[in-house]
DNA sequence: GGTCAAGTCTGGTCTATACCACTATAGACT
DNA sequence: AGTCTATAGTGGTATAGACCAGACTTGACC
């Protein structure tokens, strides 16, 4: 509720997180107006410039948007450029949706040539396959099949990935942080299995995505094939020259 | 060289562009240290907070990086190749396909509120609408509707855009170079008009794309709505953290 | 010569204040 | 009733000053 001026955490970061929590908890809804900068400044006993520092960060992340002369509002936009490299769980969390998963398959297999090429590992070397149905607020959104090299993250499958975020485990347990990705997106009609899992009535459009994720050292972390429901998912990308 | 306090362009944007120009011209090299914030502040006669505003923008864009207690430095990765920001013609050329277009509509209209918002221009101001059917090797691939502010490129429509690349004209005639874009992609079923133009037999999947393109100064160059044939087009994107 | 301490410079954080252009509204005027 | 006009409120920009922790330089001291 309150900000702590003695904390080593800067005030503008504290305020930023406080606002995010309020949005997550549903105390602030999309298109709700925030208190004005001057009000927030008085309310939390900090200067307006510090308030602005917090708000501008959130605007840059797409959580808020501003209208000069009117006020600052909570965005509806789900996915912003900065979150492009987060996993499904993080994306859903940001969008204020409950992310969950149903694990369809979780095994270790020898790398088929195609997958080995994507992962840049020798053919037939150990590859972890994790196939999950992704849900947001209990409604199916995507089928995701991730391939990871067993060398990079042995024992990965000891986790229960129906609850846990893959990216969180990679980061916290193996120190693997994605920093770039090459992605291919195309539209297609859902096949029978996809329609069944995603609870679609054919004909229905889906978004097929392939993604190769790398860390700072340019090592391939994962190769993912995803199929998203066309009506429930939009893909945002920020491109730079 | 100097900053103009009377300009409608904010000082921090002016400084930001000035620094970018210096880097582009090679007056500042990767890993060079910039003058300290206090020096820049004195040098250009603006306050340190304004200098910081410019620097922080560039840090966020990856042009600069900072080291607390040491200084601010030029990043190495400024001019990374990314083909994502080229127009349709350039993309096709790279894929070794003959690009052509059929102009479906080319007019000037008053900006509807939605389009005005995307272009960040006043409602009802003059907007150029250019709707084209895009072909690769004479086969239809996409329907593209571009909106541009008439202020930025008056007389744009004197060109015959069935032959000429829009991006080429913008660059060569108006000096407008896209450097960033925010893009939204989703899958959908083709409607009747789309199916007819794209020569599809329903039901068929299409890729819908919206894109807002900006130049270095963050001015919106164009807002484009595109519909691609799902079976003939894949969308590539390179993402960076 | 090597070590440590003081001092200086850096970016990071924060305050307080000011003016601008724009938006909305309440009230006066027609 | 409809229309204009102050006016108050908003975010956007900009200034000037302050303190902090961390990185460096310098010089006194052993």
From TrEMBL, chains A, B:
The keyword DNA-binding applies. The keyword Transcription regulation applies. It comes from Thermanaerothrix daxensis. Residues 9-77 form the HTH gntR-type domain. GO terms for molecular function: DNA binding; DNA-binding transcription factor activity. Keywords: DNA-binding, Transcription, Transcription regulation. It holds the Pfam family UTRA. InterPro entries: Bact_HTH_transcr_reg, Chorismate_lyase_/UTRA_dom_sf, Tscrpt_reg_HTH_GntR, UTRA, WH-like_DNA-bd_sf, WH_DNA-bd_sf. This is HTH gntR-type domain-containing protein. It comes from the Bacteria. GO terms for biological process: negative regulation of DNA-templated transcription.
């Amino acid at each position: 509720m309150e900000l702590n001026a003695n904390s080593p955490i800067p005030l503008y970061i504290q305020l930023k997180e406080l606002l995010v929590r309020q949005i997550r908890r549903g105390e602030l809804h999309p298109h709700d107006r925030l208190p004005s900068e001057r009000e927030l400044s008085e309310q939390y006993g900090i200067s307006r410039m510090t308030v602005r520092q917090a708000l501008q960060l959130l605007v840059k992340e797409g959580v808020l948007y501003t209208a000069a002369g009117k006020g600052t509002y909570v965005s509806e936009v789900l996915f912003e450029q900065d979150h492009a490299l987060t996993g499904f769980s993080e994306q859903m969390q940001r969008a204020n949706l409950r992310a969950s998963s149903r694990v369809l398959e979780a095994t270790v297999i020898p790398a088929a040539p195609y997958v080995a090429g994507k992962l840049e590992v020798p053919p037939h070397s150990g590859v972890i396959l994790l196939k999950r149905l992704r849900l947001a607020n209990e409604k199916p959104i995507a089928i995701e099949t991730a391939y990871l090299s067993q060398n990079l993250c042995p024992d990965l499958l000891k986790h229960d990935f129906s609850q846990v975020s893959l990216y969180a485990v990679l980061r916290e347990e193996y120190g693997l942080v994605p920093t770039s990705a090459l992605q291919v997106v195309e539209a297609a009609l859902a096949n029978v299995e996809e329609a069944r899992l995603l609870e679609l009535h054919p004909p229905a459009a889906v978004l097929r995505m392939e993604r190769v994720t790398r860390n700072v050292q340019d090592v391939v972390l994962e190769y993912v094939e995803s199929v998203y429901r066309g009506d429930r998912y939009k893909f945002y990308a920020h491109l730079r020259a």
